[in-house]
Amino acid sequence: LGRGRRRGHDRDQLARFARDYRLPFVDNLQYFEYYHLGEGYLLDDEHCTRAGHEVMAANVAGVLRNLKEPR
Questions:
Q1: Whole-prediction pTM value?
Q2: How far is CA 63 from CA 8, 28, 43, 50, 67, in A?
Q3: What pLDDT digit, counting tens, does each position of 36-60 carry?
């Protein structure tokens, strides 16, 4: 997982946008970094492989399942 400085900046901007608009933010990058997922999940240009997309989809689905209806 390279290019950390730019990637961190992008992640911060997305998180801020989500917070400002009260949207859930799924930090898939944090998951990849925490579990040291790279080879087999990310291509050299940092785009996901099929397995990487499956991980991301599972993360997004988990967040969506835990959302509560607005009152």
A1: 0.70
A2: 21, 11, 25, 20, 6
A3: 777 888 888 878 899 999 999 999 9
